Amino acid sequence: MKFSLSRLAVMIVTATIITGCFNSGPKSLTVDLGDSATRSLLGSIPPSNFKVYFLDNHTFQIISDIYMDKLLVEKSLSSPDIRIIEQYIPTLNSGALRDYYNVNLNSFMQSFHYEKAIMSFNEGLRELQKELEVAQENVIKQSKVIDKYNAILTRERLARENIEDEIESSKLKLRSLENELSKEVDDYNFENKKKIRFSDVSFAAHDTFTSIKGSCKRFTKGYTLTIRKGSYCFSKKLPHSIKLTRNEFNRYKQGFTQYIENRYKLTKSHPALKGSYIDKKDQLRKRTRIEIASYENVNGSKKNIYEKSALYENTLRQNRYTVEHYIRNKTKYIEEYLGEDFINIKSKISYGIDLSDPNSPLSKDVLSSLSNIHPETLDSLYQVDFDSNSSMVVIVVDSKGQEGFPMFMQPKVIDQETIGKIDSLTYSLNSSNLESVSSGGTYDTFITLVGESFIRWKE
Questions:
Q1: Cis amide prior to 271 (ω within 30 degrees)
Q2: Phi and psi dihedrals of 32, rounded to 5?
Q3: In Å, what is the CA distance from 9 to each residue of 57, 288, 352, 400, 402?
Q4: What residues contact residue 426 under an 8 Å CB cut-off, 6+ apart?
């Protein structure tokens, strides 16, 4: 019985078995309907309708060569410049296909004005790229605008952080001065057997007055020392019982002066004392506001500059997508530019590999390659004697007119090293390895399955 694939309503299941020649190995091949979905699909078909074709290495290679020819032509048809097929013609395995293109290709190309089409395409691309460059420049410029705005805020933040550090330093200095003074009082009491109270000499225990015409003379009477800071006078009175040498007095005055200077800067008042940390913060805030106001007069408000940035970035994304989409659709552009002429050329070229037409050059090679292949039929146990000389097994299931059978089994490669150790081979059909028939029909799917299995085997 000769191979026949004339009926479209068939199901082809292909199993790739790279066996080589060996003396031992499986004696039979069993087809198993693996899961419930497959049993529902194929279970009602009698095993006599399962035809098994054992392909030898020679036939396997011929069909794979046909598949490679088909891939080369399809590659040229997907190229914007289909003239690339001229480079592939000498490498085609099919003599009938080579002859078809050698005889007809020049006449096909008479109406293929690729240069005009690509010139028009490039002009359009240049315009889109100009728009993209403008969008990129706008994003960069606006980014610099935002960077300058953020730089103002950053300078303010860093300056504010420095003020906070100074505040902490002043607080620490106050504690340090009081602690040092307390230690000196303790040492003095211990050495001189006296009892001076720390509260009497503490720097914190002082009186504060508002200076009169910038002078503190009125507030010196009755006080051991008086220091003016800003518009205030800070006076300290020590008990009469405490007698200080000149050096001790100078050290005490130095400590008190440092204490007042730091305490003054820490004063929280409204309005803020000039030179205080509150005053520093106010001055910083005013400078920043002036700088931002000046900046916004030129560039717009913060909201506006960020809205403009978002608009520019969105425009850039759209323009970038437009350019990428334009380039990706180069072939489609050329097809539309050339119109019917290009469609007719592709149709004439693709006819050479049209396996749905038995008269096409490549179909003739397929028919010739498959004409001497004789199938075996599964017995009632879904088994068939295994041909140890085969390198591929193709299983064809006749649908007998039932719908839903344009399905094919993904090929399966069998390891040569392990196949010789088993007595039987089971090929399981299940829903996970079935796929739909191609739009090219039965022959196209058959050649594709064999060709793809060949490529996987080579890899």
A1: yes
A2: -115, 130
A3: 28, 81, 24, 8, 7
A4: 29, 30, 31, 32
Quick check: 14 pLDDT over 70? no
Amino acid letter, residue 131: E
139 has a pLDDT exceeding 50? yes
> Using alpha carbons only, what angle is made at residue 309 by residues 303 and 311, rounded to the nearest 5 degrees?
100
Check residue 9 and give its pLDDT: 37
- Write out the DSSP string of 398-420: E-TT-SS--EEEPP----HHHHT
Q: What span, in angstroms and rounded, lies between the C-alpha atoms of 32 and 433?
A: 13
Q: Are 434 and 408 in contact (CB under 8 A)?
A: yes
pLDDT tens by residue, 317-337: 999 999 999 999 988 888 888
Predicted pLDDT of residue 24: 66
CA-only gyration radius of the chain, Å: 48
Of the candidates 10, 50, 33, 20, the residue with the CA atom closest to the CA atom of residue 375: 50
Largest CA distance in the chain: 136
SS3 string, 106-143, reads: HHHHHHCCHHHHHHHHHHHHHHHHHHHHHHHHHHHHHH
